Amino acid sequence: MALSTLKQACQLSRLAGTLRPAIYLSARGFAAEPAQEESETITLEVNPFKGHKVEPPSNVVETNKDELFDMYKTMFLMRRMELTADQLYKQKLARGFLHLADGQEGVPVGMEAALDFDDSMIQSYRDHCTYVGRGGTMKAVFAELMGRVDGPARGLGGSMHLYHREHNFFGGVGIVGEQIPVGTGLGFAHQYRDDGHVAFTIYGDGAANQGQIFEAFNMAAIWNLPVVYVVENNHYGMGTADSRASKSPQYYTRGDYVPGLWVDGMDCLAVKQACLFAKKHALENGPILLEMDTYRYHGHSISDPGSTYRTRDEVSGIRRARDPIEHVKQIIIEHGWADANELKRLEKELKAQVNADVEEAKKSPFPPEEDFYNNIYVDGLGAKLRPIEVGMDKIQLPKGPRGPSADASTH
């Protein structure tokens, strides 16, 4: 369930009156569902949206105390999860590829504030926070990173392949841009079923120049599919700045005949407002493109220090001026809902919960040996894993009509 890792922290918190009941948090944890108690509503201005072939929504956003606390806690947990994943990799407990999204937490949190789990979502390989936003647990993320069976891909997929089918999260896709045509197909499914929901198809600026994107735009526009294309523009495709990789890095305009919006992706309230607008537009008029202007603090992947193509001053400057967690934290303090010391105590409890989830994930077993050859054929074909010997096949299929012929040389 969404944010189930937060349950204990909420029950322990000293911030009496500022947290929703634990049953609500475990059920969702975002503003897309109503609070169980009256919460003070406020209006705030976000950075103005920029529109392409569409009139932008208002930059005056309604929110409330409960929603802001939920957003703050969720982003803080996501940040700690990513930093902890980095440590697990350096301790050689996590293996494979690792693409962290610390700094970009405002995008998944803002999106989920506008959506529900009947809307579909598909993401690139920078997918940990998106998975948690879709209702996955941090324990499951850590288990997958460490190759344990309690991970969403049962320890076989790793960082880039997180899924939550029950909540219509279709990955976690490891090939750059591959998810975009698939996300378009998810939109077609919603239209075919006429279910009133949309597909959010997320990719990065590094994939934004691929031909398959424009083929998908064309098909979605011809059929007026309910698809919201989301470009998470963190301004670097691996180590190349967007201005060097794209003749036009204003990605919200790149859909041509597909309307677009520029959005401050470091402000979860701006993201929420844009996604509410985009969902309504997609259901009534067809596809729309959202460019989320965001920033990652880590390098592209665990092998990238992130310091050879940008300066430390640039990274620290973004942290000081635009950090999504600090932004919401300041709103909470300015409205007198908590002071800095109270929030520091809450953060300590949330850190402890992340550490507890890591320890729980470590208790999960590794996949059984037979998983090495499962999911290759529909029924397994009775395949058996032979002892590994140099120069010999690793998989031996039974002979007969469903296996290799006894006289394979005749084929």
CATH class of the largest domain: Alpha Beta
CATH third-level topology of the largest domain: Rossmann fold
Distance between the termini: 52 Å
How big a fraction of the residues is strand? Answer: 5-15%
- How large is the radius of gyration? 23 Å
Describe the structure.
Tetramer of 2 alpha and 2 beta subunits. This is pyruvate dehydrogenase (acetyl-transferring). Residues 74-368 form the Dehydrogenase E1 component domain. InterPro entries: DH_E1, PDH_E1_Alpha_Subunit, THDP-binding. The chain has 411 residues and is of the alpha/beta class. It has 2 domains: 4-362, 3-Layer(aba) Sandwich (Rossmann fold), CATH 3.40.50.970; 378-411, no CATH class. It has 13 helices and 13 strands. It has helices at 7-12, 22-27, 65-90, 106-114, 128-133, 138-145, 179-193, 211-222, 242-245, 268-285, 312-322, 324-334, 340-362; strands at residues 41-45, 50-52, 60-64, 120-123, 169-172, 199-204, 227-233, 236-237, 240-241, 260-264, 288-293, 384-385, 395-396. Helix 4 (106-114) packs across helix 10, helix 6 (138-145) packs across helix 13 and helix 7 (179-193) runs parallel beside helix 8. The longest helix is centred in the first third of the chain and has 26 residues, at 65-90.
